[in-house]
């Protein structure tokens, strides 16, 4: 990581994972950068308004400027305006969390959400919004990977890694043979499932947005496993498929879905 732009983006990505901020030494250590160079990068970001340092000599943290850029861009794609009513209706009907993810190069990114659970146990993954879905362990990741050619799917999964997410149930670890079996089961079923392997106590089902060739994204329903049982998941599948088809029927209104590979 020698180019200034590489270092700058690495700093931004690191700080995005730590909303409480990090000290200069912590940033330098985690990115294996000289403290002097790290100080210059942080000062440049501070001057440009992307980073703040509320206390002199204290931690550096992101401002809202970067998030505002992302939200502004996402709004201009038309995706949220187009898809949100569909997500809201599905969430209200199923009483669980509904999420839309979109293919972005070699990743699947969660971009929109609707919460249908109004009381009791609920799954609220606010920290996951805008992040890449686990291709090996999330229902959305499995559904999207299954829509890809096998070689590409396995290559992307290997690049992301087969280490289960933090919070997954013990015994969730898959090897390559296990992943190949999961992909085969997902293709045969026509949807992806994840129970406890993404987060202990959570279950999810996901369908790839219908398209010829690789899907441009996925739609999922997730909730507590005690409520989202196998029978309940099967009951919700027709509504999930119908919502995915509805999104794709109006997909031309969104540049993001039109341009997805």
UniProtKB/TrEMBL annotation:
Keyword entries, A-Z: DNA-binding, Transcription, Transcription regulation
Domain HTH iclR-type: 2-64
GO biological process: negative regulation of DNA-templated transcription
InterPro entries, A to Z: GAF-like_dom_sf (IPR029016), HTH_MetabolicPath_Reg (IPR050707), Tscrpt_reg_IclR_C (IPR014757), Tscrpt_reg_IclR_N (IPR005471), WH-like_DNA-bd_sf (IPR036388), WH_DNA-bd_sf (IPR036390)
Keyword Transcription appears in the UniProt entry: yes
GO molecular function, one term: DNA binding
Domain IclR-ED: from-to ranges: 65-253
Full protein name: Helix-turn-helix domain-containing protein
């Amino acid at each position: 990581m020698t180019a200034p732009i590489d270092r700058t983006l690495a700093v931004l990505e690191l700080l995005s994972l730590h909303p409480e901020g990090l000290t200069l030494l912590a940033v330098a250590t985690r990115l294996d950068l000289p403290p002097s160079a790290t100080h210059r990068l942080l000062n440049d970001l501070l001057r440009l308004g992307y980073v703040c340092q509320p206390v002199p000599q204290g931690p550096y943290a992101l401002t809202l400027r970067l998030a505002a850029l992302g939200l502004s861009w996402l709004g201009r794609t038309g995706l949220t305006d187009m898809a949100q009513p569909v997500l809201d209706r599905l969430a209200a009907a199923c009483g669980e969390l509904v999420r839309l993810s979109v293919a972005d190069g070699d990743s699947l990114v969660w971009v929109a959400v609707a919460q249908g659970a109004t009381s009791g146990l609920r799954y609220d993954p606010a920290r996951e919004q805008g992040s890449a879905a686990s291709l090996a362990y999330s229902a959305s990741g499995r559904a999207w990977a299954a829509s890809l050619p096998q070689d590409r799917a396995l290559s992307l999964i290997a690049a992301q890694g087969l280490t289960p997410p933090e919070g997954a149930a013990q015994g969730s670890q898959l090897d390559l043979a296990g992943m190949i079996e999961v992909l085969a089961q997902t293709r045969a079923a026509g949807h992806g499932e994840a129970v406890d392997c993404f987060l202990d106590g959570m279950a999810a089902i996901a369908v790839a947005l219908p398209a010829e060739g690789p899907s441009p994204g996925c739609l999922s329903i997730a909730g507590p496993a005690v409520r989202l049982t196998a029978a309940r998941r099967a009951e919700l599948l027709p509504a999930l498929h119908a919502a995915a088809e509805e999104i794709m029927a109006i997909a031309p209104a969104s540049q993001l879905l039109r341009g997805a590979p």
